[in-house]
Input
Amino acid sequence: MTGPDLVLAKITKRFGGLIAVSDLSLAVSPGSIHGLIGPNGAGKSTTIGLISGFIRPDAGSVAFGERDLTRLAPFAIAGLGVARTFQQAAPLAGLTVYENVLVGMHMRYRSGLGAVLLQMPGVARESRAIAGSAGELLDAFGLAPLAQTDAKLLTFGQLRFLEIARTIASTPKILLLDEPAAGLNQAERDRLAALIRGFRDRGIGVLLVDHDVPFVFDLCDRMTVMNFGSVIAAGDPDQVRRDPIVRDAYLGAEAEGEAAT
Amino acid sequence: MSEPIRRKLERAGLVAILAVVVAVAIGGSRLAVYNFTIIALQAMVVISLNLLLGLAGQVSFAQTTFMAVGGYGSAVLTLRLGLNPWLALFISAFMSLAVALVVGRPLLRLRGHYLAMATFALALGTYSFVGAATPLTNGSIGISGVPPLALGSLSLDSPLSFYVLSWIACGLTMLVYAVIANSYIGRAMRAVATGQDVAAALGVNVTAYKGLAFAIAAVIASLAGSLYVEFTSFVGPDLYDIGMVVNVFLMLFIGGRGSNVGPILGAALLTMAPQYLAGLEQFQNLVFFVFLLVLILVWPAGIFGPVRN
Output
């Protein structure tokens, strides 16, 4: 697949005396799914925060192709094609589902303030085109019936899919999914898995962080396992599954993993 | 109340406002013309706060600061430097923009209560400053004799001409608000207001959008401040005291955020109510307070407030 990798090199983050992430290195290639698993507090969500600019690392770097993302603001990182979802699915409350997706498409708008104030014809044209795309995206995600509903009224599952739709609307090249399967029922999980595979097939590089170990094993092409902020295993999912260190850290989960194969 | 019905009501409200404005122009008494001129200028400031707070969610008490820059700017530039009042108006607005950009940077890093406190401090500081900076502002005495605006050789100092000018200015302000609110810029501001991190993750330059709302609100408040001083030919510190700070907020919250009708309604109510209550003398404040309380209890989100729920 074409496009550069997202590369983390020796990322370290301390919160006071607590080492949240220590010397983490990994790469996400376009057109692949890279799973990141580990017990609670292993540093997985912190990693997503570090990549997406919400947290500044104490050491190490994040690069996307030639661009150094390490000290950029979140909006700039999103602008370079690296997008993230949030663990606590947050609706943009007070905005409709449709408007939520339009915010996802924010970066497509090129009209300046002056053009908007003077209501130049190009502004309306651009709005219509983007509105059309938003409608299509809502249809693809099955959210069209909810388009005019205030996002804060959505059920948990609907909110999850809205969040993913909204993030995909920003046309990312790399997608960081922070515990997307949490709280979803089996049908929703299957739908989510199909979506993620679809993203991969369209050339997006996915970093999939989740607690549901079988879910991640099932989907990923490569895997990294963290514990207490450090990488304890990385590589091919089958290798990782059989790694004794991983088994130690994941006694119970490993049994589920085997049952899934 | 559903959204389509609310939109119809809003349109009806705007038509009603237009009708009243025209009616007063044609057949209004001297007092009515005076009052409604004040209402137009007050409404401009409330609309500016609507943009900053209602749309972008930034709790700022500092609109009076920019009203003061506009008001004192106009007075000083025309009287001391002999500038054309229109030029003074625009230079003052430009100065407000500069202040907004400089002060906004550090201020807007604060959120919620902290932003509220910091902007409140700025407003009170402004009041103190204009009262104390006597060489510039003539201190607590204020500056009188501010020359009126003129259109060519036609001096706009008749009540009716100022009335028309004020409502044109207010109308333009409403247009600016409506155009921004309905654009992707307004949507980005609403996203910043309700979910700043989500907005940032979707590529919205949160700092820039907060700054933009702050700057636009500052310029509008400055223009309103200048026009008010041109209208009354006088500027003094008490125009920008804590009462005015609170007043602007009250007008917005009683009238309702989310559309242009609310601010005008709020401005009208709070400008006219004290006059109707004047006859009650010592009960004036009490009745006014009860009146406001009833309004807030019946319409917690403002009379014309957001109803999406």
Summary: Strands of chain B lie at 143-144, 150-151, 154-155, 234-235.
